[in-house]
Amino acid sequence: MDKNLEISLLFDFYKDMLTDTQQQAVSLYYNDDLSLKETADILGMSRQGVRDALTRAKTSLFEYEEKLSLCARFDKTSVELDSILQCTQQIEELSQDEKLLTLVKSINESVHRLYETEV
């Protein structure tokens, strides 16, 4: 995975655990794709100050993921939920049994509720 994308994903999960300055720097630099100079100008900091804030933020984000694994769990859950939906779609296509189709509908609704909870 691209390092910038990985940092953006980790930021989505752990941004509230960073300082305000780190949050702003990561958001501007990684999410808004601004340069260090542009980020520094917006934050009223030196370029080196932004670099330091980003370095500390990246270190913290990777440490949080190592300890909590929220991003990894989310990815695994998403893959499994997609698999369930694929299976229920196949059952719907193959079955004429109304009771079974009602159960499939219930499973699909539960999966969609889980997606809403996860995101």
Structure, described:
By secondary structure, this protein is mostly helical. It folds into two domains: 66 residues, Arc Repressor Mutant, subunit A; 47 residues. 84% of the residues lie in helices and 0% in strands. The chain contains six helices and no strands. Helix 1 packs antiparallel against helix 2, helix 1 crosses helix 4 and helix 3 packs across helix 4. The longest helix is centred in the last third of the chain and has 25 residues. It is elongated, with a radius of gyration of 21 Å.
Roughly how many Å apart are the termini? 20 Å
| Major sheet description | none
By CATH, the topology of the largest domain is Arc Repressor Mutant, subunit A
Total count of helical runs of at least 4 residues? 6
CATH class of the largest domain: Mainly Alpha
Could you estimate the helical fraction of the residues in percent? over 70%
Q: Pairing-aware structural class of the strands and helices?
A: mainly alpha
Share of residues in strands: under 5%
Characteristic key phrases:
119 residues, mainly alpha, Arc Repressor Mutant, subunit A, 6 helices, 84% helix
Structure at a glance:
With 119 residues, the chain is mostly helical. Helices cover 84% and strands 0% of the residues.
